[in-house]
Structure formats: C-alpha cells, structure tokens
Amino acid sequence: MNERLQRILLVVGFVLIVGLLAFGLYWVFFRPQPTGPVVTPPVTGKPGTLPGTGQAPPPGTVTSVTPGLPTPGGVPTQVPTLPTGVPSVQRTAVLSEARTTNISMSKGGQLRGYNPNDGKFYRIGADGQAVPLSNQVFFNVDQVAWANGSDKAVLEYPDGSNIYYDFATDKQVTLPKHWEDFNFAPQDDRIVAKSIGNNEDNRFLVVANPDGTNAKAVEPLGNNHDKVHSSWSPNNQMIAYSFTGEPMGYDRQQILLLGQNRENFKGLVVEGRGFIPEWSPSGKNLLYSVYSSDNGYIPSIWVSGAQGESVNANRRNLQLNTWADKCAWQNENVLICGVPTQLGRGAGLQRELFENTPDEIYKIDLAAGTKVNLGAPAGNAAVKEMTITADGSAALFTDATTGRLVRFNLQ
C-alpha cells in the first residue's frame, strides 16, 4: 500500500470516528425525549387569530352565579327590575363629545371629570351640561385622586409634581415630589401615599392631612415599594394592599391588606396574577380580577369577603372575563360590568392590545345569584372608567376609543 493511499484512509477513518463521537454525544445528551402523543385541536377561527373567550349569551339572557353575599348577615338591597325587550342602543346616550378622563361620582351624586384638551375640571349634569369646577387650568395632568364627598383632589403630573387642590375655595398646595399613588380616606380628612426616598431606608407608606401636613409613616417599603398600592377602604380598615404575601406558587398568591395601625389582617388568597381590586360600598366585600395559565391568561372577575375574619369568605369566580376596573358597584349586592366581546389568549399580559375591544354591559346580582347581559352600548363603545349614578339608574363611563362620556341606562 502506497503512502498516498494510507493518508487517504487515515483521513477517512478520522472523519468517521469524529462523526460517530458527535452522534453519540447528540444521542446521549441532546436528542428530544419521547413524550405522549400530541393532539392538535381543530382551528375554528380565521388564520392568524388567537383563541377567544367564547360566545356571550344574547342580550337579556339571565344566567346564574353562586348566590349569596361574601359576608353573611347582610340585608339584600332592592334594585329596579329590568324591563324586557329594551334594545341596548336605546339605553345609550352620549353625555359629552369632549374627551373626558378621571371621572368620579361624589357621595352627593355629582359627576366630576377632567378634559385634557382644555386642562379644566368639570361637574357634568344628567343632561351632559358641563360646568367648570374652577377657572384654573391644569395642563397635562396624569393621575387624579378624587375626594369622596367633596370637590377636592390630588393631581399627579408626569414629571412627578403633585398638587392638592380644593375646587370649592381654589386653595392649592404643592405636595412633596417624592410622594406618589394617592388615595383619600372615606371622610376626606386624610390621604395615604407612598413616600419614595432616594434609598431603601427612606421609603414609607404614609398617611397625612390632604395638604401634606401631619404626615406619619405607617409601613416601611424598602425595595418593595413597587409591590404596594394605596387603596383606602370605605369602612376605614384598610389603606393599601401589597403583593408581598406568602409564596403560593405561580398561579396563586397572597395579597396582604394593610391598615393604618399595622394591624395583622388575614391575607387575601387569589387564584392568579394581575390583581385589580374594587371595594364594595361598605368595604366589607371586594371585587377583583386576576388571570392565570389555567384559562390562557385571560382576566376573570372574582368576589370575596374582605373585612376582619370574613377575608376570603365565600370567595368565588363570577365566570365573566373582564377587568375589575371596568366594573362598578350599583349597591352592596349588585355589580355592573363592561365585558369585552372578544379577548384573545394572553389578554391579561397585554391589556393594551384589547383596550378598544367593544364591550357588553352585564348586571350581576350576588344575592339572587343571577347575571344579565344588558347588551352592547351603541357605537361599539369600550368601557375605560365606570361609575354609577346616585339613584342607580345608569352607568356612566368613558369610551376608550373616542374619549366620549357615555350614559347607559340600567332601567
């Protein structure tokens, strides 16, 4: 055998050995492990679309939820009986064509809102007539924390500036720039906020007079300041909630309810993430929304007891896919909610993709155990903020698509 042939055989042998070693490594460490058979469900929608939440019942359809209030012993409140056969478009009226944000109903039955186009705050009557609360102009207001029974508010700006303003007296006070996330006490005599200092040792949940005086640190926040949110309950027990409860797994968590005297309240257990709460008028109960992997990360609304030993009492899923801040309490027993007509998988993770999805309005009677689809408001409106008139006859909300203020009659 000549030298040239030997070299060729050596090269071929080397290549074969390297190839066998590479295949052996792949087979031992990198080959896919066998699994059970994969069943691909049939595609029912158009190509490129995500699976949705299913078909809603026709308007006027009455379906059931588990009856009973979260806290026992409550006396059911009488609510108007819904007339049958009233088209949803006839229930709808546009109160204001002007862009309206940060709406709130005072205890006196006055609707307040902000017009970002002209920078003024208005009181809006049942006929849609808007009367300025003040001639003062406030451009580029980001967040508004309204007082409950008086025309006072804390205004937050994108640059971190904060102003307390009394519209009845035109009194203005500048609040500390390192304060954020404001909320008023039920009697409007105090506010709660987060004081975010430059270092972790100087970050606290604080309560103070609305003008910022007599401030008192309630809870240290440290590096958990982004996990605490101000929310003063109507019964004056809670001032905030926190995502710092005991670990309970990926799709379950414990929400801590914080009082102004560092009380040791029971933690609220919720089945999911993305917790958004709405207190009932008494503060005894809580509506909230969460999403989880069990339902494709689509938000669903739940109700639970939320006072003292009744925290977690009668906690249950209301079987409607929406966010809690698209709902409002008509009274202690009845909820009114905007429910998107279609939500795709992952809506809870990417809410901004579904903000303009048209809604249908549902009425949920917790005492009777019923929910009624009242139909879709005219104009393909999407609920952004909702409140209920003092007499309970209508829901008022801003349309996420147009910014208009819309009235939807509930009777």
Strand order of the largest sheet: 1-26-25-24-23
Helix content: under 10%
Number of separate helices: 2
N-to-C terminal Cα separation, in Å?
A: 103 Å
- Write down the Rg: 27 Å
Q: How many distinct folded domains?
A: 1
The overall pLDDT, averaged over residues, is 86
CATH superfamily: YVTN repeat-like/Quinoprotein amine dehydrogenase
CATH class bucket: Mainly Beta
Overall CATH architecture: 7 Propeller
State the secondary-structure class.
Answer: mainly beta
**Percent strand:** 35-45%
Low-confidence stretches: 25-52, 71-85
Q: Kindly identify the CATH topology.
A: Methylamine Dehydrogenase, Chain H
Q: Main sheet?
A: 5 strands, antiparallel
Explain what the structure shows:
The longest helix is centred in the first third of the chain and has 28 residues, at 3-30. The strands form 7 sheets. Strands 1-26-25-24-23 form a 5-stranded antiparallel sheet, with no helix packed on it. It has a single domain (62-409), classed as YVTN repeat-like/Quinoprotein amine dehydrogenase (Methylamine Dehydrogenase, Chain H), CATH 2.130.10. It has helices spanning 3-30, 88-91; strands at 62-64, 92-96, 101-105, 111-115, 120-124, 130-132, 143-146, 152-156, 162-166, 171-175, 179-184, 191-196, 203-208, 216-220, 228-230, 240-242, 253-258, 268-270, 273-279, 285-291, 300-305, 316-317, 327-329, 334-340, 359-365, 370-375, 383-388, 394-399, 405-409. A hairpin with a 5-residue loop joins strand 5 and strand 6. 8% of the residues lie in helices and 35% in strands.
